[in-house]
Design a protein that fits this description.
The chain is of the alpha+beta class and 138 residues long. The protein has one domain (3-100). 47% of the residues lie in helices and 17% in strands. The chain contains four helices and five strands, in the order H-E-H-E-E-H-E-E-H. The protein has helices at residues 3-17, 36-55, 84-97, 121-136, and strands at residues 29-30, 64-71, 74-80, 109-111, 117-119. A three-stranded mixed β-sheet has the order 1-2-3. Helix 2 runs antiparallel to helix 3 (84-97). The protein is elongated and about 65 Å long. The relative contact order is 0.13. The mean pLDDT is 94.
Amino acid sequence: MSEELEYDAFSKRMHERFPLMFSEPYGGFVIGEGWYDIVETLCSHIQRHIDWKNEHNEPVPQVVVNQIKEKFGGLRFYYNGGDDTVHGMVHIAEAWASHSCETCGDKGKRRGGGWIRTLCDKHEEERQLIMNERKENV
């Protein structure tokens, strides 16, 4: 499946599973496919936590996503609502992503050399080949 089709399928699934989180306009998902599972797992845990707390008369404001993106090789999950538990979940997900390849989800590490990315060895090697080809063609 192409990246665009994969993105569309992921975005549709997220809107269907978490309509309250994605009820307002937001910046889309500006992350690689390797982080899709992390974000979906995070949203699932957040919504379960909110639903459980609200069912037990311990109100927690609904999380509404503002933006989900990569910045400096790390996951950024911007939102309104939630509580300290949600804040902790977001922190854990961002830490998880900082050790996961943005492209495939395997173990990765932050790589410099232009745009900072979190990549596994295989995808870093591919990136270096592309960068070297571009330099040769200039």
